[in-house]
Design goal:
The complex is a heterotrimer of chains A (about 500), B (about 240) and C (about 220).
Chain A lengths: L2 H6 L9 H38 L12 H33 L7 H22 L15 H21 L8 H26 L6 H34 L6 H14 L15 H30 L11 H22 L3 H7 L4 H30 L6 H33 L6 H53 L1 H9 L1
Helix pairs in contact in A: 2-3, 2-4, 2-12, 2-14, 3-4, 3-5, 3-6, 3-7, 3-12, 4-5, 5-6, 6-7, 6-8, 7-10, 7-12, 8-9, 9-10, 10-12, 10-13, 11-13, 12-13, 13-14
Chain B lengths: L3 H27 L5 E2 L6 E2 L5 H12 L53 H4 L3 H10 L16 E5 L23 E5 L1 H12 L18 H9 L6 H4 L10
Antiparallel strand pairs in B: 1-2, 3-4
Helix pairs in contact in B: 2-5, 4-5
Chain C lengths: L7 H7 L29 H21 L14 H7 L4 H21 L25 H9 L1 E7 L2 E7 L8 H12 L13 H10 L9 H5 L6
Antiparallel strand pairs in C: 1-2
The chains are: A mainly alpha (about 500), B mainly alpha (about 240), C mainly alpha (about 220).
Chain lengths: ~500, ~240, ~220
């Protein structure tokens, strides 16, 4: 290891010990993670429904609120806003406090604000199921929802920033760059995109440009950066191998921050946008590869390093994070490559796109965040996970589910595109060809749901144990309040 | 990278740049784009939709039709759209000036609908597809929308009314009943019939075929809904690396 | 935590007491936060490749960006390509204008397909009055209208056509007649009409305020 770095970096003493950090984070972060898990289950069930309906149009067809055109966005929004954003925020708050060596203020107040966020998501998902979607993919929440989400978000992020402002002096760590960027970017993205599509819409296709810009940045700048922030923390932390190159980290960060946000319209090449707009996005998404390569090179030795301690070999957080790293490379790489040439012409408007999105959200992001949660929750509760078996079950379900879904949809997308691009083949033939792949997607979603179920069961088990250990004495105390009060007076 | 402000300002600048580049500059550039007067008919384009069709657009949005159908025709070289006769020309920004929201979609589990009104003129076909697409296409994956229709009891001895869907075989309602479209189904069909992207104007004039002089006259004379094969701009093919 | 990789103040914090006993063994909670080392710089090949690809990006935008013009939609085209497709010859312009005039003034009687209405309005499509060598009679009909019996393609019609002398300019009349005469969709093959020809006839028939009759017209040579 480079001894030179140690002479240049002189870490100031943290203002709070890790144990204190964890105590200050306990309720807000656990609350956010718990609610995120609830939404993960909701999203999982809705996703299964949607994928069944995709290949079995007769399934539950009598109910308007369960039609494919509503269940599909409801599942996506529950996942992105209910699960992903929430677990991302929870982990981000913890990381900011941990890395800053400071405690998180807010406590129960933060939890209340988190509840407000969930109210917004719940209203939004119901709104979509009731037909109130706005017509903009990934901005479907009805117009009464965004103000709720924005208010809740601003409060949550403000607490994060307060903690960030109180950090110990000295160099910022990579994770802090990514988290800070994500926290600042989200309100800007969400507020301006909602304003320009829903409240005060631009004219014509400009609405779609704003929506595409938002959808792309939601995945890359918000969720992507949160995920990277987490990976840059946990991979080196759990292997004990430092991230080798500061310079490369800087290069990667700025490449991703500068080129990434310009993407989005590469999915609409040939659509009704002036040529320069989609070309700009194509160029940006190709150049974005440099950021991806930099991250890959920088984290590769860390990913390959052995766990810090032999006993940690079975540590779920590291397994999840390693796999998230590979999912990131595959997802980001393919999304850049599919902006060009053969891959674009074959996969545009096909199943390939949702396959890629799935790899990004359920693969890279969810793996990174769930891995983080597997690490953080024992720290906050002071209890280890009760069953390594359940963790393993969840892990394998997640891996197999995401892998199967991606392979099925990527292959299905190629078949879909190839047959669709042959004008001699009638459209029902195209459908016939992509049908088996779509059906495989349902199987994958079911496997994922089993994994989520295992996670939920595991969490329930953990909470039960914890209650037994912590709440039971507490309850006993509460049941004899008078005695305690008298004792205090005495 | 020691400073929070540096990261903050840098990312802020990057996001602003992308926002300007993909949203605001295009808005300044063609946000004020206006209707054109078509040389052929003297009408302004795009014309508005009828009230019923506008209601239908709301139904289209509520049912999330755009999660399976696009409304954008790509030019030759970018896809099979023209060869599949989903349109007679590519679509451009002006086609969507009066839509709110613009429901482009980015998934083609079903065919493109940008020019559906011109290629599907049979209202009953559209209604049947909405009621149950498998009546017409045995393996269709299109969801059924039975709740947009009303299955009602016929008075004894009465024959089905004129609006009743011609359902036979396994799809027929029980004897003594008929299936008629509800108001939402009619609105949706009116909207689908109003989907047209075939007018010719500055950005979308087709390439004149290789010509003698008379051909040129022929080309200018060809009516707007001329045969799609003629309308495919032969040299529109895109060169992409 | 490996000794020597961190300075002592950090290491000391780890031993701080005051934490509830945990089931987790202590080493796992080693508080070493991850670090950024400086083992190597950004590889030169990556930076050079980025420069190279930025150049490619500029080329790509130059090739496919349509000059950043909002009316260029096809990748690989420029405004000149769009411009080149706009119908531009004199005849094209006349025909386009004529189609518009026809839709406004003529279509009610002569119908969109130019075939008129049997027994009421004579056809223009494949009509022996339209497909003549010159447009002299047609110009007169449009200027001053027509009354009384007229035989078109062997069928007799007896109706009134209104005069358009005051409504339509020379260019308008030339346009609509060119549209009619050169309309191959209707099966017509006759030549274009120029505004100058209309102007000449308008001046020659300046004083006239009554409709033409077929007999009068047949007395006029159809071409000069």
């Amino acid at each position: 290891m480079a001894a030179a770095s140690d002479s240049t970096v002189t870490p100031a003493p943290p203002r709070a010990r890790p144990a204190e950090v964890d105590t200050s984070c306990r309720w807000p972060v656990l609350g956010l993670l718990g609610l995120a898990l609830a939404w993960l289950l909701v999203a999982g069930v809705l996703a299964v429904l949607a994928s069944i309906k995709l290949h079995g149009p007769g399934f539950l067809a009598e109910w308007p609120w369960l039609t494919y055109g509503r269940v599909q966005p409801a599942a996506g929004h529950a996942f992105v806003f209910g699960f992903a954003s929430q677990i991302g925020l929870g982990i981000a708050l913890w990381l900011i406090a941990r890395l800053g060596g400071t405690w998180l203020t807010g406590g129960v107040g933060l939890l209340l604000v988190g509840g407000f966020w969930n109210l917004g998501v719940a209203l939004g998902v119901f709104g979509i199921l009731l037909g109130g979607g706005t017509g903009f993919e990934s901005l479907e929440f009805p117009r009464y929802v965004p103000p709720i989400l924005m208010t809740a978000y601003v409060c949550l992020a403000a607490w994060g920033l307060i903690a960030f402002g109180r950090r110990r002096p000295g160099d910022l760590y990579v994770s802090q760059w990514y988290l800070l960027a994500a926290l600042f970017a989200f309100p800007w993205l969400y507020a301006s995109a909602t304003l320009l599509t829903v409240y005060s819409p631009l004219r014509g296709v400009l609405q779609v440009a704003a929506q595409a810009w938002f959808a792309h940045n939601l995945a890359t700048l918000w969720l992507g950066f949160l995920g990277l922030g987490s990976l840059f923390y946990f991979l080196p932390k759990l292997t004990g191998r430092p991230v080798p190159s500061r310079s490369l980290a800087v290069f990667g960060f700025w490449s991703l921050a500068i080129f990434g946000p310009l993407g989005g319209l590469q999915r609409y090449v040939g659509g009704p946008f002036p040529a320069w707009m989609s070309s700009l996005s194509v160029v940006a998404s190709v150049l974005n590869l440099f950021g991806v390569v930099a991250v890959a090179l920088n984290l590769y030795p860390v990913v390959r390093a052995a766990p810090r301690l032999p006993g940690e070999a079975a540590m779920p957080a590291l397994r999840f994070a390693r796999l998230a790293y590979y999912a990131y490379l595959l997802g980001a790489g393919l999304s850049s490559l599919s902006a060009l040439g053969f891959l674009r012409r074959t996969t545009q408007f096909t199943l390939f796109t949702p396959g890629l999105d799935h790899l990004w959200l359920d693969g890279f992001f969810a793996l990174a965040m769930l891995g983080a949660a597997y690490y953080v929750v024992p720290k906050l509760t002071g209890r280890d996970w009760p069953s390594p078996g359940l963790t393993r079950l969840h892990f394998y379900c997640q891996v197999v589910g995401v892998g199967l879904f991606f392979v099925a949809y990527a292959a299905g997308g190629l078949v879909h595109g190839t047959t669709m691009n042959d004008p001699a083949l009638p459209f029902f033939y195209v459908i016939k060809r992509y049908l088996p792949f779509a059906a495989t997607g349902t199987l994958a979603n079911l496997i994922l749901l089993v994994g989520y179920g295992a996670l939920a069961a595991h969490v329930a088990w953990l909470i039960t144990r914890w209650c037994r250990d912590v709440c039971a004495p507490l309850a006993r105390e509460l049941l004899e309040p008078t005695a305690t009060a008298q004792e205090v007076k005495a | 990278m020691n400073q929070g402000p540096l990261v903050f300002l840098g990312v802020f600048a990057a996001v602003i740049a992308s926002w300007l580049g993909l949203v605001i500059v295009p808005h300044l550039q063609f946000g004020q784009q206006d209707m054109v007067v078509l040389e052929e008919t003297g009408e302004s384009y795009p014309g508005g939709r009828s009230g019923l069709a506008l209601q239908g657009a709301e139904v289209y949005r509520e049912q999330g039709c755009y999660y399976c159908h696009t409304q954008q025709v790509r030019p030759a070289g970018e896809g099979p759209d023209l060869k599949r006769r989903w349109g007679v020309r590519r679509t451009v920004a002006r086609d969507y000036l009066r839509d709110q929201p613009v429901l482009l979609g980015q998934m083609r589990l079903g065919p493109d609908l940008a020019n559906l009104g011109a290629r599907e003129t049979n209202r009953t076909t559209l209604l049947l597809k909405l009621y149950n697409a498998r009546v017409l296409i045995p393996n269709s994956l299109m969801p059924r929308y039975p709740y947009l229709f009303e299955t009602r009891k016929l008075p004894p001895g009465a024959t089905p009314s004129g609006d009743a869907l011609p359902l036979v075989g396994p799809f027929a309602p029980p004897p003594g009943f008929e299936v008629v479209p509800g108001p939402d189904a009619l609105a949706l069909v009116a909207y689908l019939e109003s989907l047209r992207a075939e007018a010719r104007f500055y950005e979308v004039f087709p390439t004149p075929p290789p010509k003698a002089d008379t051909n040129q006259v022929q080309d200018a004379l060809s009516p707007t809904n001329g045969p799609p094969t003629n309308a495919v701009p032969a040299t529109n093919a895109t060169v992409t690396p | 935590m490996k000794p020597g990789t961190h300075s002592t103040p950090r290491a000391r914090t780890r031993t701080a007491p005051g934490r509830r006993p945990r089931t987790e063994p202590a080493p796992l909670d080693a508080d070493a936060e991850p670090r950024l080392a400086e083992e190597f710089h950004t590889p030169l090949w990556l930076v050079s490749l980025l420069g190279l690809m930025c150049y490619w990006g500029a080329l790509y935008l130059h090739q496919n960006g349509g000059g950043f013009h909002p009316l260029v939609f096809n990748l690989g085209e420029h405004l000149a390509d769009v411009e080149a497709r706009v119908p531009k010859s004199d005849t094209d312009a006349l025909i386009a204008q004529g189609r518009r005039i026809y839709t406004i003034y003529c279509v009610a009687c002569h119908q969109p397909n130019g075939r008129g209405l049997p027994g009421q309005f004579p056809p223009l499509a494949e009509s022996d009055w339209v497909n003549t060598a010159g447009p002299n009679r047609l110009i007169r009909i449009v200027l001053n209208g027509l009354t009384g019996p007229i035989t078109v393609n062997g069928t007799e019609y007896n109706n009134v056509m209104l005069p358009w002398r005051d409504q339509l300019s020379d260019a308008d009349i030339a346009a609509v007649l060119t549209f009619t005469r050169a309309n191959k969709d209707w099966g017509n093959q006759a030549g274009a009409v120029s505004p100058e020809q209309v102007k000449a006839v308008r001046e020659a028939t300046q004083g006239r305020d009554s409709n033409w009759t077929a007999t009068e017209l047949l007395a006029v040579p159809d071409s000069d």
